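Review form for a predicted model. The reviewer records the input and the model, then writes brief findings.
Reviewer: anonymous (R2)
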Amino acid sequence: MVRAFDLREGEFREFTNADCHFAYRQSRFNTTDRGRYIVTRVDYCLRPEGAATLHYAELQRAMLDQAPHAGQPR
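Model under review:
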């Protein structure tokens, strides 16, 4: 769930994942509705046993510095 303040209507709105039209580096907030909303809250659904998804080399290095076995298959 994403909560955002609608600058046009002057009120808060809540959006589902589908409502946000998320794609690679893209969403309604930086395309069709650019400048209309201020995102104030994002809820994530994480799994305690879930493995980290580390696609960026810089992120991989940072995680490995923190936890040497992070990002490696079990």
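Findings: The chain has two helices and three strands.
Further findings: The longest strand covers residues 37-42.
Recommendation: see findings above.
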